[in-house]
Amino acid sequence: MHTRVRVVALLAITMLSSFTFASSNGTINFGSNLGTLSYTYSQTYYSCSYYLGAPGSGYLIPTNYIVETFSNVVYQNTSIQPNINQSIPGYSDIAGSPGPNAGSQDSCPADTSGSSTYNGTGYTIYYYGGNAYIYVPGYVNPKYQVAGVLYSPPGSKSVATYMNNNLVNSTVTTKKSFATSYQIMTSDLTSGSISPFKGGSIDTSSTVSNSYKQATTTSDTTAVTVQTSTSYSQAVAGPVCDYCGVDHDYDIIEVWLNPVQLFTVIGYGDNRGKSANYVQPNGYGFSTWDAPGMDVYHVFAGELNGDLAVRSSTTAAFARSWASTSNGFTYATGQGPALTATDKLNILKTDPFWNCTYKSAVWAPANCPEPASASFSGSVGTNGTVVTWISGNTFSRLLDQAKIIINGVSYTVSTVNSTTSLTLVSSAGVQSGVAYSAPSRFTQSTNLNFPYAQPSPGGQSTPTGYTWSYTTTNMTGVDVGHEFTVTYGLEQVFGVKLFGVGFQKTVQQQWSTVQTYETNSQITNTNTSTAVISIAGPACNVVSGNCSPVYPPSHAFNPVTCTALSLATAFGQGDNMYVYQDNLFGTFLVEPYGQP
Fold first, then answer.
1. Engineered SS bond to 50: which of 106, 125, 223, 490, CB 3.0-4.6 Å?
2. pTM, rounded to two decimals
3. Of 6, 26, 13, 18, which Cα lies nearest the Cα of 43?
4. Same-domain check for residues 367 and 224
């Protein structure tokens, strides 16, 4: 009797075609400046049945299932202009149903997992089961990025050529730019090509770069490498004056002046009040407000350190007049499109020998440190940002902006003050007798050293060809670093729109990102990772049967007038040269030794 009553009760329920069990309103918060998603949630019970056994002689099994419905969905954002108040299609899903194959004459539907995607203007919303994401793609326009450093060889007839390879590169992450409340996601490159952008989207009137490409090449998944294409050839020559030897004033720093950095700002929320925010780097493009291609300008280090006159083309290029407010660009108060004195100094210091010039004394460790061919270590004491050497390797080969690990914590070197003292970018506190180590930015090449020698009187300096190959490094990508802050502009299409307002909330300092240069760990000693070098020694001008001047000379020489100075023999005036590879930019450095 008790069983019969329960069956009757169950049958009574299943006779109802449906009834709404629960209904409520909810709001999902996407985080700072990304808006909210409001909705009405309801659960409706529906009845269905199926037979166990043959129809008419089996057992009718009545049951119920739930339809969950999200309706009246509206995305709102009042932090941008104009405000957004957008209705979005809802969705339903089915839960608790035995499915259409539970028995014969089955009237029960299959369970479904509902979701909805809405593509708005400048954003996409995806939500399911009380969870929602908003994806806001866009880009910023940094003033510049350093694409490479090409070190000048010695001699007026000497040339280093990088061709048929992708050696010259820069690997950059912006992960230190963002507030701690934002998680940095793995870089997502839709293409290895670097595409043209203008007005907030790809500029279909232009084509991708043929000279450069992009890739992810390190263990740091947030970093992206911009590298030369194998079809692109680059060359750097020595100074006109043979008697200067190596003069780093003529090093070429490749400055990319129209980069576009692509990002997606992501907000997550759920109906339980949980939320999270993310930033996803999406690689690079270039702005065709400037030119129909990547605008990579070659500036001499001497133009930036004051040793050489600044060319008019450099002044025009660094003005970046195409990125003016009249073209719809917005900048921080007091900023504009032109490179500032701080920008130029940051660019200059990507060349660690920027202050090692024709006037530098022989073995001047402050300006011309001998590159360490391996990592070095010892013990130090710290007092805030000041680090004092105690034992082990001194700081004579540690470069400005190098990384140093003190007591297990990584710091960036601001300035090497002497062989026993340096200053950090950030404080290391007060410590005494703690271990330090530092990876080397340079690796001595396995190629033999070569002479830079003057011929006998009456002889000629004939070019000698070398092929320098890259030695595989065991760098992880983050061992060696160089970083500085770069300001950016926003195109009008992003200004007070969703991406612009949303991205400004992600960075620790508005209108700027921290650009950290890292090692490309995928450069190996394959046959494409080579440079072709032609070296010719200094000429012998015969006076009274002897070379005049004799090389190495007893005085430093002015590289422009090629006349002797009152200064003693300079650092670069050696007659033997070592070759080092720059693990940061993938190029080769010539370093003299054997000076008198």
1. 106
2. 0.88
3. 18
4. yes
